[in-house]
Amino acid sequence: MAILNFGSLNVDHVYQVDHFVRPGETLTSRQYRALAGGKGANQSIALACAGGRVFHAGKVGRDGEWLKDNLTRYGVDTSLITVVDGPTGHAVIQVDPTGENAIVLHGGANRQITPQDVAHVMGHFRSGDSLLVQNEISCVPDILERASAIGMRIFFNPAPMTPEVLTYPLNHVHTLIVNEIEGADLTGEVSEEAILNALCRRFPRAEIVLTLGEHGVRYGWGTTRIHIPACKVPVVDTTAAGDTFIGYYVAAMTAGSKPEAALTLATRAAALCVTRPGAADSIPKRAEVEAFAGTAD
Questions:
Q1: For residue range 277-289, what is the model confidence (pLDDT) as tens digits?
Q2: Contact, 17 vs 26, CB < 8 A?
Q3: Measured between alpha carbons, how far is 145 from 139 in angstroms, rounded to an integer?
Q4: What element of type H or E holds 61?
Q5: CA 264 from chain center: how many Å?
Q6: Span of 91-100, 154-163, 180-189 with lowest mean pLDDT
Q7: Angle CA(75)–CA(259)–CA(230) in degrees, nearest 5?
Q8: Quick one: which of 8, 70, 151, 279 has the fewest CB in 10 Å?
Q9: What residues contact residue 173 under an 8 Å CB cut-off, 6+ apart?
Q10: What is the pLDDT at residue 103?
Q11: Rounded Cα–Cα distance for residues 292 and 297 (Å)
């Protein structure tokens, strides 16, 4: 079955600075890099690395056409990515010597997706295919409605969390994937168990995946509860760990895995990811993950 990831594509402009720029100050950076980013793009790469047959849909400006080439390099089908006038979605990121960052995000082409675009993209898919979508693009409610009408299996990662998410037609979602902060925002609960139980009550038709960073992941559906501990690894960079987990989990579930096996595979992939610097370049290949025997925390 095909996996459609309708998601964001960003250029990350990363500046190494001695300190965050102050009002009225002109600051010289020590280093600059332009990197491929966006939750959507990272998750598509993870899907492809996991062995999924993945199509990425979205928009870039002419300044971001190289992002398509980058996805193609990983085996992602980019035929549904449109190049438009105006800037690509991008982030201006200041990084100080301690590793702390300050980020200004501009949606750019990611916010130019229209209902007409959604109808065009969805015309390429059928019942039984899977959809993965995040919250960095426009028209998410339309995407959920269209995918449901087709009969697609819908995985939703509401990141970044915004008040509008509560107005989305979440009754169409088959799997809701959130971190602890997003889960707390959706439920008003604080503890892991309370968040998971509240989400299961609120979305009784959906499988709930609650990612907890170094504490692993919890799963709930009906009365079923699963906890997979995180693997003990030396942490170098956590940038794409969440996106790696999601890509591997969705790929495994789409391929017919049981939840516990999919959660275990995705947890190991995320563990390998944090041992490496960078975002997309830190996402491991499927063979590496299957060969990795991480110890549980």
A1: 877 888 999 999 9
A2: no
A3: 10
A4: strand 54-61
A5: 18
A6: 91-100
A7: 85
A8: 151
A9: 144, 154, 155, 156, 203, 206
A10: 85
A11: 15
Of 5, 157, 11, the residue nearest 78 (C-alpha) = 5
DSSP for 80-136 reads EEEEESSPPEEEEEEE-TTS-EEEEEE-GGGGG--HHHHHHHHTT--TT-EEEE-SS
Active site residue 243: yes
Tokens of 284: 């491991």
Measured distance CA(73)–CA(194) in Å, rounded = 42
Q: pLDDT tens digit string along 13-55? A: 989 999 999 999 999 999 998 889 999 999 999 999 999 999 9
What element of type H or E holds 287?
A: helix 286-291
Q: Which of 12, 129, 142, 243 is catalytic?
A: 243
Q: Cα separation of 186 and 235, whole Å?
A: 29
SS (H, E, C) 179-202: EHHHHHHHHCCCCHHHHHHHHHHH
Residue 194, phi then psi, degrees to nearest 5:
-65, -40
Q: Residue 206's pLDDT is what?
A: 98
Determine the average pLDDT of the residues in 55-69: 97
Mean pLDDT (the chain, rounded): 94
pLDDT over 60 at 139, yes or no? yes
Gap between the terminal Cα atoms of the chain: 34
Task: Report the candidate in 159, 157, 153 with the shortest Cα–Cα distance to residue 125.
Answer: 153
Q: Which residues sit opposite 103 in a β-bridge?
A: 93
